[in-house]
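User: Predict the complex with fe (ii) ion.
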Amino acid sequence: MGRVRVGAVGDVHLDRDVVGRFRPALDDVAEHADILLLAGDLTRHGTPEEAECVAAEFGGLDVPVVAVLGNHDYHGDRVTEVTGILQAAGLTVLEGEGTVVETQNGNLGVAGAKGFGGGFAGRCATAFGEPEMKDFVRHTEFSASLLTKALESLECDVRVALTHYSPVPDTLQGEPLEIYPFLGSYLLAEAIDAVPTQLAIHGHAHAGVERGVTPGGVRVRNVAHPVIRQAYSVFVIDQTC
Ligand SMILES: [Fe+2]
Ligand SMILES: [Fe+2]
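Assistant: Here is the predicted structure with fe (ii) ion placed in the model:
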């Protein structure tokens, strides 16, 4: 198996005023990447109109486009419509599922889930006390379990985890410490480390940094657009599952 090239960007927060900003760099994406991953917060407020902007910007590319949604995409309470618009444009939208893409250099499996907050080892929320607190933590636990099942479902040469929320604190450096519990959860890293995974992609942390690693040694990359400051970054994987 050769080297698989994974393109990725998150937090493009599209609305009509942004359409066209990314497209010039996307038209030749196949020359640089075998797949393009979108790490959530594709829209500004999760409206169908904004989803149409995402469809126009990321539809019809020469490589498969695989996405998860972010918290902004949920804000309008119209996730089903938003997802449908993206899928109609040819994008694959994952939430607790996996998909395998055949590339000329091997089969690339992507497991996707939005994830959620809760914080990181030693400073995390626990399912204790008020029902609202238990609901918060249980949503994270549920999302992490979805990610594990999605990773386990993949039969592929290379396995990638795609989330919106961060699995590690490394990539949050630059964000206020006070909001770390709202930026990710260690449970996502546990999910990733439970299954052989070559790369973990996330967004959400606009003021964070690009590079991190899970406790199990999986490479983590924060591809939030304000962090990578380009249409997409490319990560090369030459390991096998
Ligand atoms: Fe964002
Ligand atoms: Fe976000």
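The pocket of fe (ii) ion (ligand 2) is lined by residues 41, 70-72, 164, 204 (CB under 6 Å).
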